[in-house]
Amino acid sequence: MSKSLLSLAITAAVLSGCSLIPDYQQPQAPVAAQYPQGPAYSPAEAANQAAAEQGWRQFFHDPALQQLIQTALVNNRDLRVAALNIDAYAAQYQIQRADLFPAISANGSGSRQRTPARMSQTGEAAISSQYSATLGVSAYELDLFGRVRSLSEQALQTYFSSEEARRSTQISLVASVANAYLTWQADKELLKLTQDTLAAYEESYRLTSRSNEVGVASALDLSQARTSVENARVQLARYTRQVAQDENSLTLLLGTSIPANLPSPQPLSADLLSELPAGLPSELLQRRPDILAAEHNLKAANASIGAARAAFFPSISLTANAGTLSPDMGGLFKGGSGTWSFAPQINIPIFNAGSLRASLDYSKIQKDINVAQYEKSIQTAFQEVSDGLAARQTYNQQLQAQRDFVNANQDYYRLAERRYRIGVDSNLTFLDAQRSLFSAQQALITDRLAQLTSEVNLYKALGGGWNEQGSQKAEVSKEAPPLKLF
Protein backbone atom coordinates (compact mmCIF):
# COMPACT_ATOMS: atom_id res chain seq x y z
CA MET A 1 0.00 0.00 0.00
CA SER A 2 2.79 2.41 0.83
CA LYS A 3 4.38 1.92 -2.60
CA SER A 4 1.12 2.70 -4.37
CA LEU A 5 0.66 5.82 -2.29
CA LEU A 6 4.22 6.91 -3.09
CA SER A 7 3.74 6.33 -6.81
CA LEU A 8 0.46 8.24 -6.73
CA ALA A 9 2.11 11.16 -4.96
CA ILE A 10 4.95 11.24 -7.52
CA THR A 11 2.48 11.14 -10.41
CA ALA A 12 0.48 14.00 -8.85
CA ALA A 13 3.63 16.06 -8.37
CA VAL A 14 4.60 15.60 -12.03
CA LEU A 15 1.15 16.43 -13.36
CA SER A 16 0.75 19.38 -11.00
CA GLY A 17 3.06 21.37 -13.27
CA CYS A 18 0.29 21.44 -15.87
CA SER A 19 -1.51 24.77 -16.29
CA LEU A 20 -4.26 25.69 -18.71
CA ILE A 21 -4.02 29.46 -18.12
CA PRO A 22 -3.52 31.25 -21.49
CA ASP A 23 -0.21 33.04 -21.96
CA TYR A 24 -0.75 36.64 -20.88
CA GLN A 25 -0.14 39.28 -23.53
CA GLN A 26 -0.32 42.93 -22.50
CA PRO A 27 -2.67 44.78 -24.87
CA GLN A 28 -1.23 47.58 -26.95
CA ALA A 29 -1.84 51.05 -25.55
CA PRO A 30 -4.63 52.62 -27.65
CA VAL A 31 -3.13 56.13 -27.50
CA ALA A 32 -0.52 58.13 -29.36
CA ALA A 33 3.15 57.90 -28.43
CA GLN A 34 3.25 61.65 -27.70
CA TYR A 35 0.92 64.08 -26.00
CA PRO A 36 -0.91 66.56 -28.28
CA GLN A 37 0.99 69.51 -29.69
CA GLY A 38 -0.36 72.88 -30.75
CA PRO A 39 -0.96 76.48 -29.66
CA ALA A 40 -2.64 75.35 -26.43
CA TYR A 41 0.39 73.31 -25.32
CA SER A 42 3.81 74.31 -24.13
CA PRO A 43 6.87 72.60 -25.69
CA ALA A 44 7.55 69.12 -24.31
CA GLU A 45 10.16 68.94 -21.56
CA ALA A 46 12.25 66.03 -20.37
CA ALA A 47 11.16 64.70 -16.98
CA ASN A 48 14.05 64.53 -14.51
CA GLN A 49 11.69 63.16 -11.87
CA ALA A 50 8.35 61.55 -12.58
CA ALA A 51 5.32 63.06 -10.86
CA ALA A 52 4.63 59.74 -9.14
CA GLU A 53 8.06 59.94 -7.50
CA GLN A 54 7.62 63.54 -6.39
CA GLY A 55 6.30 63.54 -2.85
CA TRP A 56 3.25 65.62 -2.08
CA ARG A 57 5.28 67.59 0.45
CA GLN A 58 7.55 68.58 -2.44
CA PHE A 59 4.68 69.48 -4.72
CA PHE A 60 2.55 71.45 -2.22
CA HIS A 61 4.46 74.33 -0.64
CA ASP A 62 1.79 75.63 1.75
CA PRO A 63 2.49 74.30 5.29
CA ALA A 64 -1.21 74.54 6.15
CA LEU A 65 -2.14 72.35 3.19
CA GLN A 66 0.60 69.86 4.08
CA GLN A 67 -0.82 69.50 7.59
CA LEU A 68 -4.34 69.00 6.24
CA ILE A 69 -3.20 66.27 3.84
CA GLN A 70 -1.37 64.49 6.64
CA THR A 71 -4.51 64.66 8.79
CA ALA A 72 -6.65 63.24 5.98
CA LEU A 73 -4.27 60.33 5.36
CA VAL A 74 -4.70 59.31 8.99
CA ASN A 75 -8.43 59.86 9.43
CA ASN A 76 -10.22 59.64 6.07
CA ARG A 77 -12.74 56.78 6.09
CA ASP A 78 -12.61 56.00 2.36
CA LEU A 79 -8.85 55.45 2.62
CA ARG A 80 -9.40 53.30 5.70
CA VAL A 81 -11.91 51.14 3.83
CA ALA A 82 -9.48 50.76 0.91
CA ALA A 83 -6.76 49.56 3.30
CA LEU A 84 -9.14 47.09 4.92
CA ASN A 85 -10.12 45.80 1.48
CA ILE A 86 -6.48 44.83 0.94
CA ASP A 87 -6.58 42.73 4.11
CA ALA A 88 -9.88 41.20 3.02
CA TYR A 89 -8.54 40.17 -0.40
CA ALA A 90 -5.36 38.86 1.23
CA ALA A 91 -7.55 36.63 3.40
CA GLN A 92 -9.48 35.43 0.35
CA TYR A 93 -6.20 34.61 -1.38
CA GLN A 94 -5.12 32.72 1.73
CA ILE A 95 -8.35 30.70 1.62
CA GLN A 96 -7.96 29.88 -2.07
CA ARG A 97 -4.27 29.03 -1.85
CA ALA A 98 -4.91 26.70 1.09
CA ASP A 99 -6.71 24.35 -1.34
CA LEU A 100 -3.32 23.54 -2.87
CA PHE A 101 -2.36 21.72 0.31
CA PRO A 102 -4.02 18.76 2.03
CA ALA A 103 -6.06 19.58 5.10
CA ILE A 104 -4.88 17.24 7.87
CA SER A 105 -7.00 16.74 10.96
CA ALA A 106 -6.84 14.57 14.07
CA ASN A 107 -9.90 13.01 15.62
CA GLY A 108 -10.51 11.06 18.76
CA SER A 109 -13.83 9.47 19.71
CA GLY A 110 -15.32 6.96 22.11
CA SER A 111 -18.71 5.31 22.53
CA ARG A 112 -20.46 2.83 24.85
CA GLN A 113 -23.71 1.09 23.98
CA ARG A 114 -26.04 -1.24 25.92
CA THR A 115 -27.93 -3.87 23.95
CA PRO A 116 -31.08 -5.32 25.69
CA ALA A 117 -31.30 -9.07 26.18
CA ARG A 118 -34.09 -9.59 23.68
CA MET A 119 -31.99 -7.89 20.99
CA SER A 120 -28.78 -9.69 21.83
CA GLN A 121 -27.72 -12.83 20.01
CA THR A 122 -26.68 -14.41 23.32
CA GLY A 123 -30.00 -13.68 24.99
CA GLU A 124 -28.31 -11.56 27.64
CA ALA A 125 -27.93 -7.83 27.96
CA ALA A 126 -24.57 -6.64 26.63
CA ILE A 127 -22.51 -3.44 26.86
CA SER A 128 -20.10 -2.71 24.02
CA SER A 129 -17.42 -0.03 23.85
CA GLN A 130 -15.37 1.43 21.03
CA TYR A 131 -12.54 3.99 21.12
CA SER A 132 -10.62 5.41 18.18
CA ALA A 133 -7.86 7.91 17.40
CA THR A 134 -7.27 8.86 13.74
CA LEU A 135 -5.21 11.22 11.64
CA GLY A 136 -6.62 11.87 8.21
CA VAL A 137 -6.86 13.87 4.98
CA SER A 138 -10.33 14.80 3.80
CA ALA A 139 -11.29 15.30 0.12
CA TYR A 140 -7.94 16.63 -1.07
CA GLU A 141 -8.06 17.41 -4.80
CA LEU A 142 -5.02 16.48 -6.84
CA ASP A 143 -4.51 19.57 -8.99
CA LEU A 144 -3.62 17.62 -12.12
CA PHE A 145 -4.78 20.25 -14.61
CA GLY A 146 -4.13 23.41 -12.59
CA ARG A 147 -7.72 24.27 -11.70
CA VAL A 148 -6.91 25.09 -8.07
CA ARG A 149 -3.74 26.97 -9.03
CA SER A 150 -5.72 28.99 -11.60
CA LEU A 151 -8.20 30.01 -8.93
CA SER A 152 -5.31 30.86 -6.60
CA GLU A 153 -3.70 33.01 -9.30
CA GLN A 154 -7.03 34.76 -9.87
CA ALA A 155 -7.29 35.55 -6.15
CA LEU A 156 -3.67 36.78 -6.11
CA GLN A 157 -4.23 39.18 -9.00
CA THR A 158 -7.40 40.46 -7.32
CA TYR A 159 -5.32 41.10 -4.20
CA PHE A 160 -2.77 43.05 -6.25
CA SER A 161 -5.63 45.04 -7.80
CA SER A 162 -6.89 45.97 -4.32
CA GLU A 163 -3.42 47.30 -3.46
CA GLU A 164 -3.51 49.53 -6.52
CA ALA A 165 -7.06 50.60 -5.66
CA ARG A 166 -5.85 51.71 -2.25
CA ARG A 167 -3.04 53.66 -3.89
CA SER A 168 -5.50 55.27 -6.29
CA THR A 169 -7.76 56.20 -3.38
CA GLN A 170 -4.86 57.92 -1.61
CA ILE A 171 -3.88 59.87 -4.73
CA SER A 172 -7.48 60.98 -5.20
CA LEU A 173 -7.70 61.94 -1.53
CA VAL A 174 -4.56 64.09 -1.68
CA ALA A 175 -5.88 65.88 -4.77
CA SER A 176 -9.36 66.29 -3.26
CA VAL A 177 -7.98 67.80 -0.05
CA ALA A 178 -5.77 70.16 -2.05
CA ASN A 179 -8.63 71.29 -4.29
CA ALA A 180 -11.00 71.71 -1.35
CA TYR A 181 -8.38 73.75 0.52
CA LEU A 182 -7.67 75.96 -2.50
CA THR A 183 -11.39 76.51 -3.05
CA TRP A 184 -11.76 77.42 0.62
CA GLN A 185 -8.93 79.95 0.36
CA ALA A 186 -10.28 81.41 -2.89
CA ASP A 187 -13.75 81.88 -1.39
CA LYS A 188 -12.22 83.54 1.66
CA GLU A 189 -10.33 85.94 -0.61
CA LEU A 190 -13.54 86.61 -2.54
CA LEU A 191 -15.33 87.20 0.75
CA LYS A 192 -12.64 89.68 1.86
CA LEU A 193 -12.78 91.42 -1.52
CA THR A 194 -16.57 91.68 -1.26
CA GLN A 195 -16.35 93.09 2.26
CA ASP A 196 -13.90 95.76 1.13
CA THR A 197 -15.96 96.52 -1.97
CA LEU A 198 -19.15 96.78 0.08
CA ALA A 199 -17.45 99.25 2.41
CA ALA A 200 -16.40 101.35 -0.61
CA TYR A 201 -19.90 101.18 -2.09
CA GLU A 202 -21.46 102.23 1.21
CA GLU A 203 -19.08 105.16 1.48
CA SER A 204 -19.90 106.17 -2.09
CA TYR A 205 -23.60 105.86 -1.33
CA ARG A 206 -23.18 108.02 1.77
CA LEU A 207 -21.41 110.74 -0.22
CA THR A 208 -23.99 110.57 -3.01
CA SER A 209 -26.78 110.81 -0.45
CA ARG A 210 -25.21 113.93 1.03
CA SER A 211 -24.80 115.43 -2.44
CA ASN A 212 -28.44 114.66 -3.15
CA GLU A 213 -29.49 116.46 -0.01
CA VAL A 214 -27.77 119.67 -1.16
CA GLY A 215 -29.08 119.28 -4.72
CA VAL A 216 -25.81 118.33 -6.44
CA ALA A 217 -26.67 114.65 -7.13
CA SER A 218 -29.98 113.55 -8.61
CA ALA A 219 -32.36 110.91 -7.29
CA LEU A 220 -31.24 108.68 -10.16
CA ASP A 221 -27.62 108.95 -9.01
CA LEU A 222 -28.68 108.00 -5.50
CA SER A 223 -30.71 105.03 -6.75
CA GLN A 224 -27.82 103.77 -8.86
CA ALA A 225 -25.42 104.00 -5.90
CA ARG A 226 -27.88 102.02 -3.82
CA THR A 227 -28.08 99.21 -6.39
CA SER A 228 -24.32 98.75 -6.11
CA VAL A 229 -24.58 98.46 -2.33
CA GLU A 230 -27.39 95.92 -2.45
CA ASN A 231 -25.62 93.85 -5.10
CA ALA A 232 -22.49 93.73 -2.95
CA ARG A 233 -24.59 92.58 0.00
CA VAL A 234 -25.94 89.72 -2.12
CA GLN A 235 -22.39 88.74 -3.03
CA LEU A 236 -21.37 88.97 0.63
CA ALA A 237 -24.09 86.54 1.70
CA ARG A 238 -23.15 84.14 -1.10
CA TYR A 239 -19.46 84.04 -0.26
CA THR A 240 -20.16 83.78 3.46
CA ARG A 241 -22.24 80.69 2.71
CA GLN A 242 -19.62 79.23 0.38
CA VAL A 243 -16.82 79.62 2.92
CA ALA A 244 -18.88 77.77 5.53
CA GLN A 245 -19.72 75.00 3.06
CA ASP A 246 -16.07 74.77 2.00
CA GLU A 247 -15.11 74.15 5.62
CA ASN A 248 -17.72 71.40 5.87
CA SER A 249 -16.46 69.72 2.70
CA LEU A 250 -12.89 69.88 3.93
CA THR A 251 -13.91 68.43 7.31
CA LEU A 252 -15.53 65.45 5.57
CA LEU A 253 -12.37 64.77 3.57
CA LEU A 254 -10.19 65.06 6.67
CA GLY A 255 -12.35 62.64 8.62
CA THR A 256 -12.04 64.96 11.61
CA SER A 257 -12.32 68.65 12.41
CA ILE A 258 -9.93 71.17 10.88
CA PRO A 259 -6.91 71.45 13.23
CA ALA A 260 -6.97 74.50 15.47
CA ASN A 261 -3.19 74.94 15.18
CA LEU A 262 -3.25 75.21 11.39
CA PRO A 263 -0.42 77.46 10.12
CA SER A 264 -1.36 80.72 8.45
CA PRO A 265 -2.35 79.96 4.86
CA GLN A 266 -0.40 81.48 1.98
CA PRO A 267 -2.30 83.70 -0.48
CA LEU A 268 -3.36 82.25 -3.83
CA SER A 269 -0.91 84.56 -5.57
CA ALA A 270 2.04 82.87 -3.81
CA ASP A 271 4.16 80.07 -5.25
CA LEU A 272 1.99 77.24 -3.95
CA LEU A 273 2.91 74.38 -6.31
CA SER A 274 6.00 72.90 -7.95
CA GLU A 275 6.38 72.66 -11.70
CA LEU A 276 5.57 69.24 -13.17
CA PRO A 277 7.14 67.82 -16.36
CA ALA A 278 4.72 65.42 -18.00
CA GLY A 279 7.14 62.89 -19.51
CA LEU A 280 5.80 60.39 -22.06
CA PRO A 281 2.42 58.62 -22.28
CA SER A 282 4.12 55.23 -21.92
CA GLU A 283 5.15 56.17 -18.38
CA LEU A 284 1.50 56.26 -17.36
CA LEU A 285 1.32 52.49 -17.76
CA GLN A 286 3.74 52.08 -14.86
CA ARG A 287 2.65 55.11 -12.80
CA ARG A 288 -1.14 55.29 -12.82
CA PRO A 289 -2.61 52.97 -10.16
CA ASP A 290 -5.98 52.74 -11.90
CA ILE A 291 -4.25 51.44 -15.04
CA LEU A 292 -2.25 48.94 -12.98
CA ALA A 293 -5.40 47.84 -11.15
CA ALA A 294 -7.19 47.31 -14.47
CA GLU A 295 -4.27 45.20 -15.71
CA HIS A 296 -4.34 43.04 -12.58
CA ASN A 297 -8.07 42.54 -13.09
CA LEU A 298 -7.28 41.48 -16.66
CA LYS A 299 -4.72 38.97 -15.40
CA ALA A 300 -7.29 37.65 -12.91
CA ALA A 301 -9.79 37.15 -15.73
CA ASN A 302 -7.06 35.41 -17.74
CA ALA A 303 -6.45 33.01 -14.84
CA SER A 304 -10.16 32.24 -14.55
CA ILE A 305 -10.03 30.91 -18.14
CA GLY A 306 -7.49 28.33 -16.95
CA ALA A 307 -9.86 27.21 -14.20
CA ALA A 308 -12.75 26.97 -16.67
CA ARG A 309 -10.63 24.90 -19.08
CA ALA A 310 -9.51 22.54 -16.30
CA ALA A 311 -13.15 21.82 -15.44
CA PHE A 312 -13.43 19.83 -18.71
CA PHE A 313 -10.93 17.25 -17.45
CA PRO A 314 -11.27 14.57 -14.75
CA SER A 315 -10.69 15.56 -11.16
CA ILE A 316 -9.31 13.25 -8.49
CA SER A 317 -9.80 13.77 -4.78
CA LEU A 318 -8.38 11.72 -1.93
CA THR A 319 -9.79 10.93 1.47
CA ALA A 320 -7.58 8.88 3.76
CA ASN A 321 -7.05 8.34 7.46
CA ALA A 322 -4.99 6.12 9.72
CA GLY A 323 -5.16 5.48 13.46
CA THR A 324 -6.08 2.97 16.11
CA LEU A 325 -9.35 1.29 17.09
CA SER A 326 -10.00 -0.61 20.32
CA PRO A 327 -12.95 -1.81 22.39
CA ASP A 328 -11.34 -0.42 25.53
CA MET A 329 -9.36 2.71 26.33
CA GLY A 330 -6.35 0.83 27.61
CA GLY A 331 -5.79 -1.04 24.38
CA LEU A 332 -6.14 1.98 22.12
CA PHE A 333 -2.42 2.27 21.38
CA LYS A 334 -1.39 -1.39 21.75
CA GLY A 335 -0.01 -3.43 18.89
CA GLY A 336 -2.55 -4.81 16.45
CA SER A 337 -5.05 -2.01 16.98
CA GLY A 338 -4.04 -0.07 13.88
CA THR A 339 -6.64 0.89 11.30
CA TRP A 340 -6.63 2.80 8.03
CA SER A 341 -8.86 3.74 5.18
CA PHE A 342 -8.14 5.08 1.70
CA ALA A 343 -10.94 6.37 -0.53
CA PRO A 344 -9.84 7.97 -3.81
CA GLN A 345 -12.59 9.47 -5.94
CA ILE A 346 -12.50 10.41 -9.62
CA ASN A 347 -15.04 12.66 -11.30
CA ILE A 348 -15.26 12.59 -15.11
CA PRO A 349 -17.60 15.11 -16.76
CA ILE A 350 -19.71 13.32 -19.37
CA PHE A 351 -22.89 15.33 -19.91
CA ASN A 352 -23.70 18.71 -18.36
CA ALA A 353 -26.00 20.30 -20.95
CA GLY A 354 -23.31 22.73 -22.07
CA SER A 355 -22.67 24.16 -18.62
CA LEU A 356 -18.88 23.79 -18.79
CA ARG A 357 -18.73 25.26 -22.29
CA ALA A 358 -20.86 28.20 -21.19
CA SER A 359 -18.60 28.73 -18.18
CA LEU A 360 -15.55 28.82 -20.44
CA ASP A 361 -17.28 31.21 -22.85
CA TYR A 362 -18.25 33.42 -19.91
CA SER A 363 -14.63 33.51 -18.70
CA LYS A 364 -13.43 34.52 -22.17
CA ILE A 365 -16.07 37.24 -22.41
CA GLN A 366 -15.06 38.55 -18.99
CA LYS A 367 -11.48 38.73 -20.21
CA ASP A 368 -12.57 40.72 -23.28
CA ILE A 369 -14.49 43.07 -20.98
CA ASN A 370 -11.41 43.56 -18.83
CA VAL A 371 -9.30 44.24 -21.93
CA ALA A 372 -11.73 46.99 -22.92
CA GLN A 373 -11.70 48.40 -19.38
CA TYR A 374 -7.90 48.35 -19.33
CA GLU A 375 -7.73 50.18 -22.65
CA LYS A 376 -10.35 52.68 -21.48
CA SER A 377 -8.33 53.43 -18.35
CA ILE A 378 -5.31 54.22 -20.54
CA GLN A 379 -7.38 56.47 -22.80
CA THR A 380 -8.86 58.25 -19.79
CA ALA A 381 -5.42 58.84 -18.31
CA PHE A 382 -4.13 60.17 -21.64
CA GLN A 383 -7.08 62.56 -21.91
CA GLU A 384 -6.68 63.81 -18.32
CA VAL A 385 -2.98 64.52 -18.78
CA SER A 386 -3.59 66.18 -22.16
CA ASP A 387 -6.28 68.40 -20.62
CA GLY A 388 -3.91 69.34 -17.83
CA LEU A 389 -1.14 70.28 -20.25
CA ALA A 390 -3.53 72.39 -22.32
CA ALA A 391 -4.81 74.09 -19.17
CA ARG A 392 -1.27 74.88 -18.00
CA GLN A 393 -0.29 76.86 -21.07
CA THR A 394 -3.60 78.64 -21.60
CA TYR A 395 -4.11 79.53 -17.93
CA ASN A 396 -0.70 81.20 -17.83
CA GLN A 397 -1.76 83.38 -20.76
CA GLN A 398 -5.24 83.96 -19.34
CA LEU A 399 -3.96 84.97 -15.91
CA GLN A 400 -1.48 87.44 -17.33
CA ALA A 401 -4.23 88.98 -19.46
CA GLN A 402 -6.56 89.11 -16.46
CA ARG A 403 -3.92 90.86 -14.33
CA ASP A 404 -3.49 93.45 -17.06
CA PHE A 405 -7.27 93.80 -17.20
CA VAL A 406 -7.42 94.40 -13.42
CA ASN A 407 -4.69 97.05 -13.68
CA ALA A 408 -6.57 98.76 -16.51
CA ASN A 409 -9.77 98.75 -14.46
CA GLN A 410 -7.94 100.20 -11.47
CA ASP A 411 -6.73 103.09 -13.63
CA TYR A 412 -10.24 103.51 -15.01
CA TYR A 413 -11.68 103.55 -11.49
CA ARG A 414 -9.20 106.15 -10.22
CA LEU A 415 -9.82 108.47 -13.17
CA ALA A 416 -13.61 108.04 -13.01
CA GLU A 417 -13.67 108.77 -9.29
CA ARG A 418 -11.54 111.90 -9.67
CA ARG A 419 -13.61 113.25 -12.55
CA TYR A 420 -16.84 112.50 -10.68
CA ARG A 421 -15.68 114.24 -7.51
CA ILE A 422 -14.75 117.40 -9.40
CA GLY A 423 -18.01 117.30 -11.36
CA VAL A 424 -16.63 116.57 -14.83
CA ASP A 425 -18.38 113.19 -15.31
CA SER A 426 -21.68 111.81 -14.08
CA ASN A 427 -22.15 109.30 -11.29
CA LEU A 428 -23.03 106.64 -13.88
CA THR A 429 -19.45 106.54 -15.17
CA PHE A 430 -18.08 106.24 -11.64
CA LEU A 431 -20.46 103.38 -10.72
CA ASP A 432 -19.58 101.57 -13.93
CA ALA A 433 -15.88 101.83 -13.06
CA GLN A 434 -16.56 100.46 -9.56
CA ARG A 435 -18.49 97.48 -10.88
CA SER A 436 -15.94 96.75 -13.60
CA LEU A 437 -13.09 96.74 -11.09
CA PHE A 438 -14.99 94.48 -8.67
CA SER A 439 -15.86 92.07 -11.45
CA ALA A 440 -12.28 92.00 -12.79
CA GLN A 441 -10.85 91.33 -9.31
CA GLN A 442 -13.35 88.50 -8.77
CA ALA A 443 -12.43 86.97 -12.11
CA LEU A 444 -8.72 87.13 -11.28
CA ILE A 445 -9.23 85.12 -8.07
CA THR A 446 -11.47 82.64 -9.87
CA ASP A 447 -8.97 82.19 -12.72
CA ARG A 448 -6.10 81.68 -10.27
CA LEU A 449 -8.13 79.02 -8.47
CA ALA A 450 -8.87 77.29 -11.78
CA GLN A 451 -5.17 77.32 -12.67
CA LEU A 452 -4.15 75.83 -9.33
CA THR A 453 -6.79 73.11 -9.40
CA SER A 454 -5.80 72.19 -12.97
CA GLU A 455 -2.20 71.76 -11.80
CA VAL A 456 -3.35 69.62 -8.88
CA ASN A 457 -5.43 67.50 -11.25
CA LEU A 458 -2.44 67.14 -13.58
CA TYR A 459 -0.34 65.95 -10.64
CA LYS A 460 -3.04 63.39 -9.87
CA ALA A 461 -3.35 62.37 -13.54
CA LEU A 462 0.38 61.68 -13.69
CA GLY A 463 0.14 59.37 -10.67
CA GLY A 464 1.48 61.80 -8.08
CA GLY A 465 0.38 61.95 -4.46
CA TRP A 466 1.37 58.45 -3.38
CA ASN A 467 4.61 59.37 -1.61
CA GLU A 468 5.17 61.88 1.13
CA GLN A 469 8.84 62.48 0.39
CA GLY A 470 10.46 62.40 -3.01
CA SER A 471 13.29 60.15 -1.84
CA GLN A 472 10.83 57.26 -1.51
CA LYS A 473 9.91 55.08 -4.46
CA ALA A 474 6.35 54.97 -5.69
CA GLU A 475 6.20 51.19 -5.73
CA VAL A 476 3.57 48.75 -4.54
CA SER A 477 4.65 45.30 -3.39
CA LYS A 478 3.97 42.63 -6.00
CA GLU A 479 4.62 39.73 -3.65
CA ALA A 480 1.92 37.39 -2.49
CA PRO A 481 0.94 37.72 1.15
CA PRO A 482 2.72 35.13 3.33
CA LEU A 483 0.95 31.81 3.69
CA LYS A 484 -0.23 31.21 7.25
CA LEU A 485 -0.23 27.52 8.03
CA PHE A 486 -2.16 27.76 11.27
Automatic annotation (TrEMBL):
Listed Pfam families: OEP (PF02321)
One GO CC term on file: cell outer membrane
Upper taxonomic lineage: Bacteria, Pseudomonadati, Pseudomonadota, Gammaproteobacteria, Pseudomonadales
Name the record gives this protein: AdeC/AdeK/OprM family multidrug efflux complex outer membrane factor
Organism from which the protein derives: Pseudomonas chlororaphis subsp. aurantiaca
GO molecular function, one term: efflux transmembrane transporter activity
Primary site of residence: membrane
Annotated coiled-coil segments of the chain: 222-249
InterPro entries tied to this protein: MdtP/NodT-like, OMP_efflux
Protein's cellular compartments: Cell outer membrane
Family stated for the protein in its record: Belongs to the outer membrane factor (OMF) (TC 1.B.17) family.
Gene3D superfamilies tied to this protein: Outer membrane efflux proteins (OEP) (2.20.200.10)
Membrane topology per record: Lipid-anchor
Keywords: Cell outer membrane, Coiled coil, Lipoprotein, Membrane, Palmitate, Transmembrane, Transmembrane beta strand
